[in-house]
Design brief:
The complex is a heterodimer. By secondary structure, chain A is of the alpha/beta class. Chain A is built from seven helices and 13 strands. In chain A, the strands form two sheets. A nine-stranded mixed sheet of chain A has the order 9-8-7-10-6-1-4-5-11, with helices on both faces. A two-stranded antiparallel sheet of chain A has the order 2-3. The longest helix of chain A has 17 residues. Chain B contains nine helices and 17 strands. In chain B, the strands form three sheets. Chain B has a nine-stranded mixed sheet with strand order 9-8-7-10-6-1-4-5-11, with helices on both faces. In chain B, strands 14-13-15-16-17 form a five-stranded parallel sheet. Chain B is elongated, with a radius of gyration of 22 Å. Chain B starts with a strand and ends with a helix. The chains are: A alpha/beta, B alpha/beta. Strand 12 of chain A pairs antiparallel with strand 9 of chain B.
Chain lengths: ~260, ~325
């Protein structure tokens, strides 16, 4: 089976971050980058499902920072990487990313596309299903188990409140994969070195910034820190003092 | 903003609460129609007769349960027919399965997990969280005739069911074939313990770091007279059963006291516990979102506090 796994290099904000002057983003000096947590699980699912003759292609829309994430995936066992970037793509949102991915994914003619449910930084939960819409692929969102059966897939869709729906779907298809579906592997040192020998293609989008803006779902007006609510009463003191106070509060509230 | 189309959500023959939150949010924006894409829309007719709803658009589906492709086709047809300026859906598992596809195919405006909706001189402006809750993003949609918004559940004031007399419209739509087939529903969060019945939950998360540390917190919970519950990462890692998971995909709890140790407070977790009577949170990160819903907060290493709690609970 040929499986395409779109992944994302996500930004983690430092504790004491600052915004750039116009409020359009976080000052890059305060960002660290890592592979999106959900993508560890979608990649692992792909590596398990693809089979010996299969192929796993990881794909991302991202600048040079994103190469690191692709290399991690190649070290874990993906066969090829594709990175799509040009400067016009800065600020592309989930729907824009889906539009940019669509032709590159179509070119691979995959049997299956596995995306993460969401990215930990933007949390749109939209890229995968938007991509399925553009490619006209049957799709299931928020999948917690996958098994191959009679040429198709039987998957478990995670619903709210501890309920699960079992669904059958034909291939080709696109699934968005939830954390906990499997136990993602780690790459060993040798594999990390060898990852650089694997094919990693870099493509441009050929789009103008205006085209990217209209391909998206919304325009960012500004970022701001959330207004603090009433806020918690912060308990101060030594661990012993704080623990004693917690015990007091618990006793008082349980008797009330 | 003129017409607002609310997409009702139902599961196993019951309307979900979020539907009424969507109607509540819609009434402040413009004239309200409610779309019901379901195997038997008429079963919801009485409850959807909400004050302030002008019409209910009923699309009858061939299959009994939600199916994303059928929902997509149904909504696409209703948008084409009604030309609403805003479409409101819940930020729910079902909506996530088709709304982004509708938005991208129709070249509509789109935002998910929206927590505030307002109008700035007639232009729609929404707020959603960014960078894992550390920031808020303000978005608008210049040049879009239709905007799809997925509203965070449990955030908007719900409208009361009934009380109105909207026009009932049966809409016939060419829905095509479903792309997936329902096999079964299954409860995964059942087990030897019912955390929804506990007065006092001691809840632990990623902060406990290692499976070997779990036992210490089981003992602490027992000593303090609490039931142990957990956040999602501990269930994902296979350390604890689904039955003890608090959050959107686990249980919604409302104990007298919720003592959270090493839980940062992802949106999905907060959805399951923010209505507890008293929330006490211990976390080493002063910026952890859990402090936004906690009544009492402690910035400290959870093992220091847990050690003291254990000693003092003799």
């Amino acid at each position: 089976m040929r499986i395409v796994v779109p992944v994302k290099q996500v930004a983690v904000v430092d504790e004491d971050f600052e915004l750039v002057d116009d409020g359009s983003g976080v000052d890059p000096d305060f960002l660290e980058w890592s592979l999106n947590e959900w993508d560890d699980f979608s990649l692992e699912a792909a590596l398990q499902l693809s089979g010996e003759d299969g192929e796993v292609v990881v794909m991302t829309v991202g600048d040079e920072e994103a190469t690191e994430g692709l290399l991690t995936c190649l070290a874990k066992g993906a066969d090829r990487g594709v990175r799509i970037w040009d400067d016009a793509l800065a600020g592309a949102d989930a729907l824009a990313v889906a539009r940019i991915l669509a032709p590159a994914v179509r070119r691979e003619q995959p049997d299956l596309v596995l995306c993460g449910v969401q990215s930990s930084d933007a949390v749109n939960s939209a890229t995968g299903i938007a991509l399925a819409g553009l490619l006209n692929l049957p799709h299931v969102a928020v999948v917690r188990a996958i098994s191959a059966e009679n040429g198709g897939l039987v998957v478990e869709r995670e619903l709210e409140g501890g309920l699960v729906e079992v669904v059958r779907i034909e291939l080709p298809a696109l699934l968005t994969v939830q954390t906990g579906i499997n136990e993602p592997r780690y790459a060993n040192l040798r594999a990390i070195k060898q990852a650089r020998e694997k094919p990693l293609e870099v493509l441009g989008s050929g789009l103008s910034p205006e085209q990217v803006a209209s391909a998206g779902g919304a325009r960012l007006r500004k970022l701001a820190e959330p207004e603090a609510g009433e806020g918690a009463e912060m308990l101060q003191g030594s661990p012993a003092e704080v623990a004693a106070r917690i015990r007091e509060i618990v006793a008082e509230r349980l008797s009330g | 903003v003129s017409g607002v189309l609310v997409v009702a959500e139902a599961r196993r023959g019951e309307l979900r609460d979020v539907t009424f939150e969507l109607i509540g949010a819609a009434r402040g924006l413009g004239s309200v129609s409610v779309a019901v894409i379901d195997h038997d829309p008429s079963r919801y007719r009485d409850r959807l007769a909400v004050d302030g709803v002008d019409s209910v658009l009923a699309v009858t589906t061939p299959q009994e349960h939600f199916e994303p492709h059928i929902a997509q086709r149904g909504l696409e047809a209703l948008i084409e027919q009604e030309q609403p300026s805003v479409v409101l859906l819940g930020h729910t598992i079902d909506s996530l399965g088709f709304a982004p596809a509708v938005a991208v195919r129709g070249e509509h405006g789109f935002a998910s997990d929206v927590t505030r909706v307002s109008s700035d001189g007639g232009d729609l402006v929404v707020v959603r969280s960014a960078y894992g809750g550390k920031l808020e993003a303000e978005l608008d949609f210049p040049g879009r005739d239709t905007v799809l918004l997925l509203l965070r559940a449990g955030t908007f004031e719900p409208a009361a069911a009934g009380g109105g007399s909207p026009e009932w419209c049966e809409v016939t739509v060419e829905l095509g074939e479903p792309h997936s087939e329902h096999v079964d529903f299954r409860e995964v969060a059942t087990g030897d313990v019912d955390i929804t019945k506990a007065d006092f939950l001691l809840s632990v998360g990623r902060g406990i770091e290692d499976k070997d540390n779990l036992e210490q917190f089981e003992e602490l919970a027992e000593r303090m007279g609490a039931i142990l519950s957990v956040s999602r990462p501990l269930v994902d890692a296979g350390w604890v059963s689904n039955a003890r998971q608090v959050g959107q995909s686990g249980k919604t709890v409302k104990p007298k006291v919720y003592l959270a140790l090493g839980i940062s407070g992802a949106v999905q977790h907060l959805a399951g516990m923010k209505n507890a009577d008293t929330i006490i949170a211990v976390n080493s990160d002063p910026e952890a979102p859990i402090f936004n819903v906690a009544h009492y907060g402690v910035v400290a290493d959870l093992f220091d506090i847990a050690g003291q709690l254990e000693q003092q609970s003799g």
